[in-house]
């Protein structure tokens, strides 16, 4: 299985901050990586596909980058509705695997 | 607009079988290049991919669950199902059904259903 490791597990930030999360894959997954946002009690929502593709309807303050084994998700200016948990997932190879999540809370 | 809805018992006894159904509306589960799958999330923890069934009926499962899991589809009802045998407390989770297309991540999710394993 491909292991996905996210950091940090928790991040305290303020509205307007630039925040960056990292996701590392244990094997080369090219750009077959997605980022999801999950709010409490809700299903996850895809925000980035194929490492850097912005899902339709997602604000442009979200961006993704990376290739191979190292990936990042950046929020350029954190908004109140962005306080949530973010998961990366590889869909290069079965079994699909998720990272452990990165939670953004209010500083 | 595609919609997915999970249904099934919210409480299952240890050693018994967990059975859930996902009803799909707004699209057909027979549409080419679609995977229909299950993902779970234990309370307060992260997401775990369980497995999926492809539009042509082929299946893929998580190795850690493969011996206990079956995913099947009923195209006449536009539903797909999950069975997990010999459940234990560690199987307590919110179970989501989901759709993804080939070379694309999950883009449609059910609302999720909490299944508790307890006597």
Gross morphology of chain B is globular
- Our Rg estimate of chain B from Cα atoms comes to 13 Å
> Structural class of the helix and strand makeup of chain B?
mainly beta
Helix content of chain B: under 10%
Low-confidence stretches of chain A: none
* Range of helix content of chain A: under 10%
Please summarize the sheet with the most strands of chain A.
7 strands, mixed
Topology:
The complex is a heterodimer of chains A (107) and B (119).
Chain A lengths: L3 E4 L2 E4 L5 E7 L7 E6 L6 E5 L3 E2 L7 E6 L2 E6 L9 E6 L6 E2 L3 E5 L1
Chain B lengths: L2 E5 L3 E2 L5 E8 L8 E8 L6 E7 L4 E3 L7 E6 L4 E6 L8 E9 L4 E4 L3 E5 L2
Parallel strand pairs in B: 2-11
Antiparallel strand pairs in B: 1-3, 3-8, 4-5, 4-9, 5-6, 7-8, 9-10, 9-11
Describe the structure in brief:
With 107 residues, chain A is mostly beta strands.
Overview of the structural elements:
The complex is a heterodimer of chains A (107) and B (119). Chain A has no helices and eleven strands. In chain A, 0% of the residues lie in helices and 50% in strands. In chain B, strands 2, 4, 5, 6, 9, 10 and 11 form a seven-stranded mixed beta sheet that branches. Chain B has a four-stranded antiparallel beta sheet with strand order 1-3-8-7, with no helix packed on it. The mean pLDDT of chain B is 97. Classes of the chains: A mainly beta (107), B mainly beta (119).
Keywords:
heterodimer; A: 107 residues; mainly beta; 4-stranded antiparallel β-sheet; globular; B: 119 residues; 7-stranded mixed β-sheet
């Amino acid at each position: 299985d491909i292991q996905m490791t996210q950091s940090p597990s928790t991040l305290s930030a303020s509205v307007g901050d630039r925040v960056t999360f990292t996701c590392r894959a244990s094997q080369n997954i090219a750009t077959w990586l997605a980022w999801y946002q999950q709010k409490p009690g809700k299903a996850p929502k895809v925000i980035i596909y194929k490492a850097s593709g912005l899902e339709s309807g997602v604000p442009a303050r979200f961006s993704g980058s990376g290739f191979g084994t190292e990936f990042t998700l950046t929020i350029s200016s954190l908004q109140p509705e962005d306080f949530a948990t973010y998961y990366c997932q590889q869909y290069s190879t079965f079994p699909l695997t998720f990272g452990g999540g990165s939670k953004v809370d209010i500083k | 607009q595609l919609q997915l809805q999970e249904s099934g018992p919210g409480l299952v006894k240890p050693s018994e079988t967990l059975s859930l159904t996902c009803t799909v509306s707004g699209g057909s589960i027979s549409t080419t290049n679609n995977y229909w799958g299950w993902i779970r999330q234990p309370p307060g923890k992260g997401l775990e991919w369980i497995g999926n069934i492809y539009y042509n009926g082929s299946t893929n499962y998580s190795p850690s669950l493969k011996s206990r899991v079956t995913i099947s589809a009923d195209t006449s009802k536009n539903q797909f199902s999950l069975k997990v045998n010999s459940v234990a407390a560690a199987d307590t989770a919110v179970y989501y059904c989901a759709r993804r297309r080939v070379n694309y991540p999950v883009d449609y999710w059910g609302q999720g259903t909490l299944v508790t394993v307890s006597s």
